[in-house]
Write a structure and sequence with these properties.
The protein is α+β, with helices and mostly antiparallel strands. The chain is about 35% helix and about 20% strand. It has helices spanning about 205-215, 220-230, 275-280, 295-315, 315-335, 360-375, 380-390, 400-410, 415-420, 435-440, 455-460, 470-475, 485-495, 505-510, 515-525, 530-545, 550-560, and strands at about 10-25, 30-40, 45-50, 55-60, 60-65, 75-80, 85-95, 100-105, 115-120, 140-145, 155, 160, 170-180, 185-190, 190-195, 200-205, 240, 250, 255-260, 290, 395-400. It has a seven-stranded mixed beta sheet with strand order 4-7-2-1-10-13-12, with no helix packed on it. The chain is globular. The structure holds ligand BES and zinc ion. Ligand BES binds near residues 122, 250, 253 and 277. The site of zinc ion (ZN) has 4 residues, from helix 4.
């Protein structure tokens, strides 16, 4: 049972969806229908998840009713089935404030000429644009027909059936591999496409395409690296969609089509660990999926582990170790501010929004656990274990208990798993990542920084105890940095240390980027002083409308 869904897949399970949707930029809604194909085990009541949907009618049913909405879960849609009916069709439309949709005006795009729409369904936002069983424990295949105004391009995390577009503005998609609802994705805008490898390419606004093609040139090598480690890529194509800067995440692993923030396009390929990460989800997450959001660590931590193995294969151990040390330190910092219950891998989310569980704990603590197991049993054995794990559970959704049973059988007595998974903090005996380059940085003011990687700059900034802001800026020009990660760290330090010359840049940054990981720390830091609060509120009143509903929710809490 998934506490974040009203549905009862144990009684009636949705197996396949047929969507038919109009993208109405004029009203900021999706309107149309979804046909749900069912496996019936028990009873005649099908319960779907919805949030903010208007249901016009349900075809092939004896009746329907929309329950009262819960703040976290939305409203259950109960459909009374005819005896023996194996499908129903829901006619509906979304609301303009749908939590899983962001409607961008032309001004918020790179090209400034066309509006843009994209979905973000994880964790439980698919229900705000499709009535369905919105739990990662249920997988569906689907087909979709989607219509957009002429001149716009529409893409989905699915196979495109007719690139020729027999009807202008209408496209047909299909997904034959069963996927959980949080991976259903769609975007529409002025998009161009360029092949970058035998099974990959980039979708982006035409203005962004060239830079993105350069930045993500290693994609095919990354796919080949994971295949070599953990078995075949099971989704045929791997494309990337570069979104406008308001995208609230770094990346989202939508199947066949990763959604990515443009803030990783640094011009020097230094932030491509994001591609390694989202690609790795094609195994950990998309192939083997967390059955509930309490099992989220099975998705993210395994992905971080695989991501670093890819970085190691492509760019060497030194680079992978730097990323591991940065992750380890950030984990320590974030965990110190979390309640004990949130420092465990298998988190209790009773009465909470699953997005609350999205801290660095499921990412970095789990990656550390896997590294510790690797050290205990040896790399060869652990690689073989992961390879068999991904194929054993392929296209299934599993719980923490399923994982435990499997690893205890396949790799007995590796590390104290119970302590790692159910208790707070980092157990004694954890592997400790180490970087020689970072050790040199910690030794004192650097003599020569030529050839430093982005990761070294980040470590340098993060280890300044009492920073001489003016000197740092004078010698290294941080306020002018074009690297979003370095700039973010620098601006955060500038707020902390009241470094006035960088404050105008804080405003420009917060008004031009919507990535929550960047917004949250800076707004939180501003809110610590009365002058900062005034500044935060002034900036937020200008920037808010450009943020995604998910980011608005987070920053509303901070700035209120
Ligand atoms: N699947 C996540 C993003 C996500 C998690 C969205 C939970 C909604 C709820 C994605 O794979 C991810 O982890 N993205 C990271 C980047 C990554 C390099 C660590 C992000 O967006 O910061
Ligand atoms: Zn991830």
């Amino acid at each position: 049972m998934d506490i974040h869904s009203w549905s009862r897949p144990d009684r009636i399970r949705v197996r396949h969806l047929e969507m038919d949707l109009d993208v109405r930029f004029d009203r900021k809604i999706l309107a149309g229908s979804v046909t749900l194909h069912l496996d019936r085990t028990e009873g005649d009541e099908l319960v779907l998840d919805t949030r903010g949907l208007t249901v016009h009618s349900v075809e092939n049913a004896a009746g329907f009713s929309l329950g009262t909405a819960d703040a976290n879960l939305g409203a259950p849609l109960s459909i009374r089935l005819e005896p023996g009916a194996s499908w129903v069709r829901v006619h509906y439309q979304t609301s303009p404030g749908a939590s899983g949709l962001q409607w961008l005006d032309a001004a918020q795009t790179a090209g400034k000429r066309h509006p843009f729409l994209y979905t973000q369904s994880q964790a439980i936002h698919a229900r705000s644009w499709i009535p369905l069983q919105d739990t990662p424990g249920v997988r569906v295949t689907f087909r979709a027909t989607v219509r957009v105004p002429r001149g716009l391009c529409i893409v989905m995390g699915a196979a495109l059936e007719d690139a020729g577009e027999s009807t202008p503005g209408e496209r047909h998609f299909r997904m034959d591999q069963p996927v959980p609802s949080y991976l259903i994705a769609l975007a529409a805008g002025d998009l161009a496409y360029r092949e970058i490898g035998p099974r990959s390419g980039i979708y982006a606004e035409p203005e962004m395409l060239e830079r993105a093609v350069y930045e993500f040139a290693d994609t095919e090598a990354m796919i080949a690296a994971v295949e070599q480690l953990y078995g075949p890529y099971r989704w045929e194509r791997y494309d990337l969609l570069v979104l406008p800067p308001s995208f609230p995440f770094g990346g989202m692993e939508n199947p066949r089509l990763t959604f990515a923030t443009p803030t990783v396009i640094a011009g020097d390929r230094s932030l491509v660990s994001l591609v390694a990460h989202e690609l790795a989800h094609s195994w950990s997450g998309n192939l083997v999926t967390n059955a509930t959001w309490s099992d989220f660590w099975l998705n993210e931590g395994f992905t971080v582990y695989v991501e670093r193995r890819v970085l190691e294969k492509l760019y060497g151990t030194a680079r992978a170790e730097m990323e591991a040390v940065l992750g380890r330190r950030e984990l320590e910092r974030e965990m110190a501010g979390l309640p004990l219950d949130d420092r465990v891998l298998h988190i209790n989310l009773e009465g909470r929004d699953p997005d609350d569980g999205c801290t660095l704990v499921p990412y970095e603590k789990d990656a550390l656990l896997l590294r510790t197991i690797e050290r205990a049993v040896g790399r060869e054995k652990f690689d073989a274990f992961l390879r068999s794990y991904f194929s054993h559970f392929a296209f299934r959704s599993i719980t923490t208990a399923d994982f435990l049973e499997y690893i205890r059988r396949e790799l007995p007595n590796s590390v104290p798993l119970g302590e790692w998974i159910f208790e707070p903090g980092i157990p004694a005996g954890a592997a400790e990542p180490h970087s020689d380059a970072f050790a040199r940085i910690e030794a004192g003011w650097p003599a020569d920084t030529s050839g430093w990687s982005t990761q070294e700059w980040l470590h340098f900034l993060r280890t300044q105890d009492q920073p001489d802001m003016a000197r740092l800026d004078r010698e290294f020009l941080f306020t002018a940095s074009g690297n979003s990660e370095i700039l973010h760290d620098w601006l955060l330090m500038s707020v902390k240390n009241s470094y006035q010359p960088a404050l105008p840049k804080v405003e420009t940054f917060l008004c031009s980027v919507g990535r929550r990981k960047f917004l949250k720390p800076i707004y939180s830091e501003l809110m610590k002083t009365s002058e900062g609060r005034t500044r935060a509120r002034a900036i937020y009143s200008k920037a808010r409308s450009s943020y995604h509903p998910i980011a608005q929710g987070t920053i509303d809490e901070i700035v209120k």
